[in-house]
Amino acid sequence: MSVGDLLWRFPSAKMAWRNLGRNRVRTGLAALGIVIGVVAIASIGMAGAAIQQQAASDLGSLTNEVTVSAGEDSDSNGLTDDQVEEIRDLVGDATVVPQKSNATEITGRNGEEARVSVTALTEASTLYNASSGEVPDRLQSGALLSEETATRLGLELGDPIEYNGRLYRIIGLLESDSGGFGDFGGNELLLPLSALSEQEYYDSATIVAEDGDEAEAIANTLESEFNQQARGETAEILNVQSFGNIQEQIGSFLNTLNLALLGIGGISLVVASVAILNVMLMSTIERRGEIGVLRAVGVRRAEVLRMILAEAAFLGVVGGVIGATISLLVGTALFELLTDNPLSVLGWASAQYLLWGFLFAVLASLLSGLYPAWKAANDPPVESLRG
Amino acid sequence: MSVIELEDVTKRYPSGDGFIEALKGVDFHADRGEMVTVIGPSGSGKSTMLNIIGLLDTPTEGIVRHDGRDVSRFSEDELTEERRSGIGFVFQAFHLLPMLTATENVELPSMWDTSVDRRDRAVDLLERVGLGDRLDHTPDRLSGGQKQRVAIARALINEPELVLADEPTGNLDQATGQTILDELTRLKEEENIAIVAVTHDDQLLEYADRVVRIVDGVIQDVEVTRA
Fold first, then answer.
1. Burial, A32: exposed, middle or buried (Cβ in 10 Å; 0-12, 13-18, 19+)?
2. Whole domain around residue A225: which residue ranges?
3. What is the mean pLDDT of residues A355-378?
4. In A, which residues are within 8 Å of B159 by CB distance?
5. Angle CA(B1)–CA(B2)–CA(B8) in degrees, nearest 5?
6. Among partner residues B76, B80, B95, which is closest to A298 by beta-carbon distance?
7. How many domains in chain B?
8. How do residues B34-58 score in pLDDT, each as one tens digit?
9. Eight-class DSSP state of A202
10. Cα B24 to the chain's mean position, in Å?
């Protein structure tokens, strides 16, 4: 069944379809303009979505963390066990990693010495990744050393490290860029909490949330629970640092950039609709006599109007569908390139631009068809029959 | 009762500072079953008269009655309904739509009436004008005479009581013109319609029941050829 047969029940649409078929080159060129407009809008939108998604995942490890340490007004010079418990109660599902820190010098097999920062913690795997060996979920015995430092000192997995009179066997080497903010790559030694048991308080606690938004919320909760005093005064019991708002700022910058680019894409659709206006106007002027015949034999003005609007709408729909299809391919390539996950092109964040591109195309075409249609429908038949 | 009746009709067009009076108090009527031929030199006002008879235009003064109803002050939309239901048109240049088949061209005036299916009548009319084997041909595959027959079938699709023919043989050779006029005359009898034809062609006078001559916007004489 051809499209023409399908449209039999809609006379205006049927006539419009046949009219477009009369000059295929002109119809094709008009639709091509719309295709380009849709591809411009949809591809730019999807590229923006891909960049945003990539930025979020790059910044993710940084921005979903909140770091807490004792504030100026704290009674102790560190976090107490009670405070850590209180924090755990407040943050819900987020993981709280209390840490004690120190610094020491270690000597390697080759006689080299290196100064390293010592972090004693239990939930090691929450914050660190291993390049070899493994990072245990709960660090009870053994030590982890930055890979860089280990290489320099000639230390390998299984070698012992002495700290404070006790020996710890190296069970894993740390990726140099693993860990949270403040880890400046290397020279880090991880030990179980028991190694620093002579320190009464924790120096800091790192809270790992789902995402930047949650981290921001946790930071706000901690501020108000610990630092808001009666009568609206504040005291810094806890020093709370979070980077969630960085993600927010970068996101809003990317949004602005995206809007500006979409505006440029939009211009191409405006140009395309002017081309459609031109094509529709030309073709109605060419067909003036024909439209006069239609009006003479009793076709109503509204029916002529609908017929010509349907022509414009077809241009928009056909151009829109082709444009959206091309954009989907372009978008898939962009996501493959930027995020290594081509299927996320189908997520609403990017797929919505296909819908917008298509809707804008149909709308722009209809608007462009409005004037030619109105002009053709209201031409007095006596005038138009004269040619 | 006349199918169409013009009573003291005047039509003026604005031109420069003043007016051109294309019709000056014209009286005219056409009845079912008769063919009236309007002749006159160019610029005589016969096109204006045909436009008013065909309800494509309204008079400046005077009364136009279609089927006994005064339609002289009808709006464009009301006139469209009158034309749609009661008047068929045959043009000198055929004016078929190139992207439609013969059958679809015949159906055109009723195409937007989805309530009635005129397909059978369209096929019947095409068979009656001898085009039963050309139903699915587009106009570019039809000869001039065949195109005009499609146009005649189109004029009759809505069972009008009046058909207007503007130089119906003007683009045809003598022999083809004659067969078209035979066709029109036969359908006039079969469908019991009034035909008003405008022409330069003397051939048409032979087929006319009445000839009306118009000069300078005034009806000069009325000649009854066969009473």
1. middle
2. 64-243
3. 92
4. none
5. 120
6. B80
7. 1
8. 999 999 888 899 889 999 999 999 9
9. B
10. 22
